[in-house]
Each structure stands twice: as structure tokens, then as C-alpha cells.
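ok posting inputs for the 6-O-phosphono-alpha-D-glucopyranose job
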Amino acid sequence: MCGIIGIVGTKPVQERLIDSLKRLEYRGYDSAGIAGVVGGHVERRRAKGKIRALEEVLAEDPLKAEVGIGHTRWATHGEPSTRNAHPQTAGRVTLVHNGIIENYAELREGLKAQGRTFESETDTEVIAQLLDHELDRGKAPLAALKATLDQLTGAYAIAILIDGEDQLIMGARRGSPLVVGYGEGEMFLGSDALAVGPFTNRISYLQEGDYVAIDHKGAKIFDETGKAAERPVTTVPASAALVEKGNYRHFMEKEIHDQPEGCQHTISAYVDPVSDRTRVPGEVDWAGLARIQIVACGTSFIAGLLGKYLIEQLADLPVDVEIASEFRYRQPALQANSLAIAMSQSGETADTLAALRYCQKRGMRTVAVVNATESTMAREVDVVWPIHCGPEIGVASTKAFTAQICVLTAVAIAAARARGRIDAAEEQRLVKVLLEAPRLVAESIKLEDAVRGIAQEVAKARDVLFLGRGPMYPLALEGALKLKEISYIHAEGYAAGELKHGPIALVDDQTPIVILAPFDSYFEKSVSNMQEVMARGGQVIFITDPEGEKHAPRGARVVVTAPQSDPLIAPLVLAAPVQLLAYYVAVQKGADVDQPRNLAKSVTVE
Ligand code: G6P
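and the output
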């Protein structure tokens, strides 16, 4: 989704605005722009497409400003175009915006009736026009901003320049995050800590409804009632180095390789490697709990589904998992004494946040499993279960997925122990198994060359099927999701037992079928399905472990043998070959791996 940066600088800002926008590219965007104060007036430069295109515009016509704002836009209202790109200008006001103004049509009509003309189709321009209108009525900038915000319904993070106010940037947030960065004689606004990361790690997170004015002297923050507010300045650990690609060609490749470390850090936070016992943060009355409700989107939903398999099997505790965008609108019946768990890498996904708030309103205790610990979800829940895999930049989630699974595996063990389903010795055995995961994931990543070899052929396919049973079923869904997200090949993940009820019709000798089958209690059944597709000419890519390889029938086109592991951690171990397959197919096809078309990293609109 859109990214924001604002700098009140003491030296030229053009390059720094661009640098910051490049760091925000991971959020997904389709146009970009910057604006700055030049000789007392605000000027802007914008371009459709990648930041490269904006750089070309700037090469022709540089922006010689020391105070400026920048934006990457992911189109919601109005097609991706230069005209709809931000910054948007109306009269004295130039601003950038993340989010959606829900009552924009009504406001736009009102403003038009007053003789105002619009140059774009965006909801953002409505904010600029409204603010300009309030300034025209003689209000000072902050008072005009407050009057404007009071008329808006919807979600926004905004950064604003005003003609004639050379040293000032104003900002506001509701629904979309905005941070204030404190530098040496310079001040910053950003849509997240990464945006201001190259300039400072001293940050204040604005709260819902806050608005702010920054200048060389510092920041004045106000709450939604207009009262001056203090927001603590924290030092964020996300150093710029953490988000470099290093020697990897793509962030996704790096992040696949980061997984042993991400799992390691995450597992260490949830189990004590000395006593081999779990230590899940926050108070949860596992024994008294009737049910768990997991809500999430995308890959986080799939991690949640895997959590259901783990928690129900180990702890005998019912778990419902639902796609947040369905859950939030269908008025689901909730059981008293249940725990709501939101799974979200970003902690900002609009549908997941709304589903979480729905649960909260109904009195449920809430947990967020997030990577961004300063995110809105993390701040709103009763308990935060962080994943510790470091910032994830590739739009297609990889290391967050495995770290989420690590958390849910530890939680399943903890719940099982607290509910008396396993004894202390079994808890210790399972924790030891979980502690083996980072090493085995690292081993599994070594399958890279073998997987790269298959990619060439898969890249030619029109459809690819992924089949699995038990915990391999969610992984089959993830394999199909990864492949379609980044290589644009149609792929379906299916429970292998459902094969005969539909997907078998797709099978012919042109269809690669990825069967995920470690040597577990489902193995025989999965092998039967393998026979069924081979009998119809299907080209099987059999992803298994050494025991599975020994027992598998002949006839698979390729066998990929991951390290042997306990079934508890097989989804973690088999995730790497599945992700690598999608990655190398996308590379083979020359696709934009880190920023696949139409997708965004953090979906802050519904
Ligand atoms: C987008 C991303 C996915 C991600 C999903 C949920 O669709 O492209 O990779 O899984 O959002 O995001 P979240 O931050 O809530 O995990």
C-alpha cells in the first residue's frame, strides 16, 4: 500500500525523499511523487509507474527544496496515472495520503457546489480542497487542519505542505499509521519506521486521531479533540542494514534464506531451551478456554489454518479459522470464553484489524501474532505474540509464514500441557523437536539447486496443482498461493482427498502436480492420490523426506527429498522447497519477484 515520507531538512531533500520512497517500494505501488518548498512556493514532480520514472522526471527538472514530502501510491480511487498520483494540490495546499476517505463523494459534491474544480479522480484531492477551503476562510493552518479532519470519514495518514509556510509539514493519522522521526535539527514524518530509517531511529508513533505539525524546532502533537498530546519517543532497532538485500538478487530469495534465523529467534522467545518447556507470553487460561477464533488474510490465514491442525490435534481445543474479510461482515456467532487470535505480518491489514475489533467489541480476549510490534493490531490487543524474523520486504510472505508457524506450534504445545493432554516429559520432547526446526529448515534450503532444476519445466505450465493431507494441506494452499502471486501461473492447492471431487479433471500430461507427503500417518493415502494422478498422465513433483522416498512408488517425474523430521515440524521443513519452487519459476519467467503486479505488502484498505 501507499508509503509516505516528509522531511523538514537543513539541506536538500530530493535525494533523501527518493531514497526513502525506494525503501517503501516493498509496500506495492503504481505511481510516485514528491513535492517541496522552492523559493517560498510548493512545487511537485510526479510519475506513473516505478520510482525510476520519477527519477527521470527529476533528472530533467530537479526539485531544489529543503522541506518536502513524498509518496508511493497504490491506486484505490482513480486509475494509476500522473494526474492521480500524489502529491495532490488544491490552492495553497499540497498533500499526500494513505487510506480511503469514505465520504469523499459527498464532500466533493459540496465543494463543487461552492465552485471548486477538481483535477483528479482521487479521494485525496478532496482533503486538499477542504483544507484549502478552511484556509480561505481565514483559519490558521493547524485550525484549518482540525476543521478538515472533523469532516472526514474513513482512514488516512496525511503529510501536508502549505504555500507560504516554508518550514512546516503537518500530518494526521486515523486508521493508517504515521510516525514522527526526530533528527539533528531536522524532523521527519513517515508511514512507518522504515520510511525514516535512513535518517533517524528516534521515533514517536502517532495515535488514532492525532495530528501534528513539525518544523526545525520539533513536533507539536494534538489528539483528536485538539488537546496538545505527548507521545513517547522510542529508539527503534530496525537498523537500515536489516533491510538491505545483501548479496541476494531479490528480497524474497534473501527472506527464504533468513528463515532458519527467523525461526530460531522466534522459537527462542516461546520456549526455554534450558528446561525444554514452553513460555508463551501473556496470561491465557488454556484449561478454561472453550474455543479459539483465528482471523487473518493471505499467507497469514494459511498459517492460521495450520495452527488449527496443530492446536486441535495436540491440545484438543477447538479452533475456528476464518478469512478476515468474510468474518467481519457476516456477523459470526461467537462462543463465550473464546480467545481471538489475529495473524498478521504487518499488523495493519484492514480486514484483519476490523475482524479483531469485532471480537474485542464482543468481549473476547484478543491476541495478535505480528511481525510489526508497533503496529495498530499490536497496540490494540490484550496480548502480543511477536514473530522475530526481522522486517519482511518481499510482497509475497515467506519468513513471516514460517515464524508464524513457530509461534503456533509453541502455543499448541503450551495449550496441550496446560489442558493436561500431554505430560511434562512429552512437552519437553516436543519442545526439543521444535528446537530442531531452524537446523532442518537450513538443510531444506539446500534443496535450492534441485528445485531450480525443476523450475524451467514448471514455468511452461498453464496450471499447477498442489496436493497435501493433514498439515500438508495448508502448505499445499501456500504453495499454490506463492506460485500464482509471483509467477502468474494458475495454481490450486487442494486437500489430496478432494482430488476426485473436482481437480482431477484438470490432470493431463501437461499439468505438474506437486504432492507434499512426508512419511507421516497420512503418507499411504497421499501415495494413493499420487497413483491416481500418474494413471492420468499427471507429471508428479513429489516432495517428501528420506523415509517417504524409500516407500514411494516409482513414476514421479521428480522427487525432492527434504530432511527427515518429526511430523510436528514437517510443515516448517517442507515450506522452503515450496517457496523456492515459486521463486525460481518467477525468476525463470522474468517476473518482478519482490513487487508482483497488482499486489501490495500491507493491505490497509478493505
Ligand atoms: C497481502 C500480502 C500477503 C500477506 C497478506 C496479509 O496480500 O501480499 O503476503 O499474506 O497481505 O498480510 P498481513 O500483514 O496481515 O500478514
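notes: The chain has a mean pLDDT of 92. The longest strand covers residues 31-38.
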